[in-house]
Amino acid sequence: MILCFCGLVTAQEINKNEFKMALGDTVVWRPFDNCDNNGYEINGPKIISFKTVKFGDCIQVIAKRIGKSSIIATCNDSNDQAVARFTVFDPNDVPAVVEIPEKPATQTFTGTYKFNPPTDNFFITINDLGTKRNETYMRHGDNEAYNDGLGIDRFWNIKTGKNWYYRPDAQGWTDDVDWEFEAFGESFPIINSFATEVEKNNLSNYYVGMEKVLDINCWRFFVDFEDNLVIQYWVDPSNGCTLKRQMNADPAKVVTVYDLKYTKLHFGPSFKKGLHDTRR
């Protein structure tokens, strides 16, 4: 059976020198049309094994381990050489299929987009629906605060440079190094994502209608990027802020608290009454 198989493979794949094999696969390779005295040597990692068949004219190769290797064949009659390369993969390692949502019909965009994000008196929380993580951003006067939803809670003053972090286990709000913080600046993700990621030349190419987020009737944009990347944005028409952002069919990031009239500070180091006061 092996001899017959060798003849069949040789007739069809005599010039094939590149093989992609799943673990356990077997192929038969014939390097030369006419040679009575062949020699074979594995070059590189021994992810394959082989044995000669049909009096040495062919070799039977078995995929043993994941990786890449090659076999050098030498015709000892003429010193001619041929090389076959083998790539062995695990058939169970199936690449993840990127799920791309179907694009709705676009509509003519008649609005005027302008990014005018809040610069003061805001308290905004963004929820990652995939990780269930919340990020919170606060600005009140010269005070800013940030919580990453994973235990990091910071508070700073952009005018004095005073900086604190929160320790719930001992001292509550605790002094940190002055100016060791990064102020929010003009804005922050995902609030600024549509403003910074999308060309605004013709928004009718992306506009697919209105949809509510936090009871706000938002512009919804469906943007095709390169490399099978689709991002959808739900944008507040009043200020151009993104209230929801979804990449492909992944869980979205969505604003869950959107207070743009945060005029009374009710937490922070100014409320601390003593060294061991752990209240926020």
Care to describe what's here?
With 280 residues, the chain is mainly β. It contains two helices and 18 strands. The strands form three sheets. An eleven-stranded antiparallel β-sheet has the order 13-12-11-10-9-8-18-17-16-15-14. Strands 1-7-6-3 form a four-stranded mixed β-sheet, with no helix packed on it. Strands 2-5-4 form a three-stranded antiparallel β-sheet. It is elongated and about 90 Å long. The model is unreliable at 1-15 (pLDDT under 50).
List its traits.
disordered N terminus, elongated, 280 residues, 4-stranded mixed sheet, 2 helices, mainly beta, 11-stranded antiparallel sheet
Topology summary:
Elements (H helix, E strand, L loop, with lengths): L1 H12 L4 E5 L3 E4 L8 E6 L4 E6 L4 E6 L3 E9 L4 E10 L32 E7 L4 E8 L2 E5 L5 E5 L5 E5 L4 E4 L17 H5 L9 E7 L2 E10 L3 E7 L6 E6 L5 E7 L21
Parallel strand pairs: 1-7
Antiparallel strand pairs: 2-5, 3-6, 4-5, 6-7, 8-9, 8-18, 9-10, 10-11, 11-12, 12-13, 14-15, 15-16, 16-17, 17-18
